[in-house]
């Protein structure tokens, strides 16, 4: 059995299944709930700053934001 904990909320992920109930961003494991919340907040932040959100243009900032949330 594999044990993984979310790097954001530090909770254990029950029956981890990559892409279903946890995701990996760079080297961080993030539960589905935290990923959806972070994605929405990051997208809203970038849209408030400059109009629209394009992951290809903002991926470095996205990864940096995820890393900060995982500390």
Sum this structure up briefly.
With 71 residues, the protein is α+β, with helices and mostly antiparallel strands. It is 48% helix and 17% strand.
Low-confidence stretches: none
What is the rounded Rg? 13 Å
Distance between the termini: 26 Å
Task: Please write the string of helix (H) and strand (E) elements.
Answer: EEEEHH
Mean pLDDT, as a whole number? 89
Task: Characterise the protein shown here.
The chain has 71 residues and is of the alpha+beta class. 48% of the residues lie in helices and 17% in strands. The chain contains 2 helices and 4 strands; from the N terminus they run ββββαα. The strands form 2 sheets. The protein has a two-stranded antiparallel sheet with strand order 1-2. It has a two-stranded antiparallel ribbon with strand order 3-4. The termini are far apart.
SSE layout and pairings?
Elements lengths: L3 E2 L6 E2 L8 E4 L2 E4 H19 L4 H15 L2
Antiparallel strand pairs: 1-2, 3-4
Features of the shown structure:
single chain; 71 residues; alpha+beta; two-stranded antiparallel ribbon; 4 strands; 48% helix; elongated
């Amino acid at each position: 059995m594999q044990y993984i904990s979310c790097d954001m909320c530090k909770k254990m992920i029950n029956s981890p299944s990559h892409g279903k109930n946890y995701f990996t961003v760079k080297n961080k494991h993030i539960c589905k709930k935290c990923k959806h919340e972070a994605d929405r907040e990051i997208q809203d932040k970038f849209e408030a700053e400059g109009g629209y959100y394009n992951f290809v243009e903002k991926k470095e900032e996205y990864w940096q934001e995820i890393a900060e949330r995982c500390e």
